[in-house]
TrEMBL record, chains A, B, C:
Highest taxon of source: Bacteria
Keyword match Membrane: yes
Keyword Transmembrane helix annotated: yes
Protein's membrane topology: Multi-pass membrane protein
Keywords noted in UniProt: Cell membrane, Membrane, Transmembrane, Transmembrane helix
Originating organism: Streptomyces salyersiae
Record protein name field: Trimeric intracellular cation channel family protein
């Protein structure tokens, strides 16, 4: 009932750091902001999903605002990304990979915290997805892009899989580091396969007719 | 003090379903997203206004996250809209009508729940408006459009009328299904008349001078 | 521990009124909305930052929703801005100045309320910044612009300075009207100097190489 066991705390902090890097690199890439803008977008991306989760599950003030490790990691991630952005040859790849790491970690942690707070199975799975996609959705909205969660079917789906695996593991009494890492890994692999092969969920019939099945991209 | 009486619950669920359809059709129309994006936008549109209301009136976790009927209806609305989007000849009309239904239902329910929670007259009316326009505002922001509540004067105003009628009915002790339906119907009619005749509230003098009175559209 | 002393309440109300004017003028300038859209954007800008602060520090329902002075001032600011928008020759200047006033007042009040609610030093400073930049960020997002807090380094930084000065004054037991006004004045001056001289924080190396040091503007 208290907080995450240590290995899952590590997963949470990893996700925070990865989203801090990702948000800051997105800022450099999409909007070429100055150092403050880059770091602010990194912190919003890293902390946003957890804020929304904590608001919805009535766990306020949010843990990530009270615990210095979260906002410090988000800040450091943003600063590192700002400093390294010139040297990163494949900045797009880095953005996608860090985003997938954050997505995977937060889907597991979000679902697990929601279960911990006494929510039922479906709300817990939904909150896992919201935690995973929340920060990136705010990130994309702030820089004027349609959010990944709407553009790419294989963004919400892997988060849903990981959140469902986490809740199932808790319900069956087998939740721990192996189960958490397994769920996160499943999410990460599905997401990266989707990106690699340009997979998407089915498009609406209207789109298919008028623009062909691969029309929207991801 | 507990929950809505059955007929008003029906109004709430109707609004949720209508916004689920509306959000999903907007996704098909505006951004041609895949099935996941379409359903996600439907659910966000359907549940977003109630989430904001429940956060502001400190009723967390939100009722719509805990009660399976809400998120299921939002999901089903999204799936139906996705499946039917090809057959819908007048998709724009459907979008506008479903939006007006959701707006009307949520203005009444939002104001009534706020009064129920002990808020005063003005905050209750404001929360009714916020509930009504909240989901659509998130929807428009996510697909990169200026929200209806800003673009069209006759969007916030009918919601305000319905919320004020609801709060007045409660204050006068005559609130029930007839009053709730009456307020919702008033909102729906004002909104649809505004859409039909392209009515808008007055524009700023500067705009009128430089672009003529009908310059901005709705 | 209760509410702000009278002079600080005056600072809070001043910020609310300034942001109401600013949001409404932004609506006239950026999107040429009708009177409802203009007033709605003014109210969202004026009340948004405080809403986010009150949600994150678990002080719900938000004070600005319960206290008629806040929403009335926000509404009146929006109406005045709508009425005067034609006569204002230098509307851009007015927008920037009102924004700086709101930013300065809210950074102080936000940090002070967060400290009051028992949060630590760093979370209080962060919440001061969030209060200051929150309303403007929602405003910019709704009209489709990249938020000031991301575009201009000297937007978050002056808010951070004022919030830090406020928290320091509270910690040292010297917080009161002079300290609050001093912190707000410092924020205002830094912000206006940044606008006047086009100052920005350093840009990422990549940008500097490809577009020159002043490439992004503010």
């Amino acid at each position: 009932m208290s907080s995450e066991p240590a290995p899952l705390l590590a997963l949470d902090l990893t996700g925070t750091f990865a989203f801090g890097l990702n948000g800051a690199l997105t800022a450099v890439r999409a909007a070429r902001l100055d150092v403050v803008g880059v770091v602010v977008l990194g912190m919003i991306t890293a902390l946003g999903g957890g804020f929304i989760r904590d608001v919805l599950m009535d766990s306020l003030p949010p843990a990530t605002l009270l615990d210095w490790r979260y906002y410090t990691l988000a800040l450091v991630g943003g600063l590192i990304a700002f400093a390294l952005s010139r040297r990163l040859r494949r900045i797009e790849t880095a953005i996608v990979v860090f985003d997938a790491i954050g997505l995977s970690a937060f889907a597991v942690i979000g679902a697990s915290k929601a279960q911990d707070s006494g929510l039922g199975v479906v709300p817990s799975v939904l909150l896992g997805v919201v935690t995973a996609v929340g920060g990136g959705t705010i990130r994309d909205t702030l820089v004027g892009r349609i959010p990944s969660v709407l553009r790419s079917g294989l963004y919400a789906v892997p988060a849903l899989v990981a959140a469902a695996m986490t809740v199932a593991a808790i319900e069956w009494g087998v939740y721990g580091l192996p189960a958490g890492l397994g769920a996160a890994t499943a999410c990460f692999l599905i997401r990266m396969l989707g990106v690699r092969f340009g997979l998407n969920a089915p498009e609406p019939p209207e789109t298919r007719r008028s623009r062909g099945p691969r029309g929207t991209g991801a």
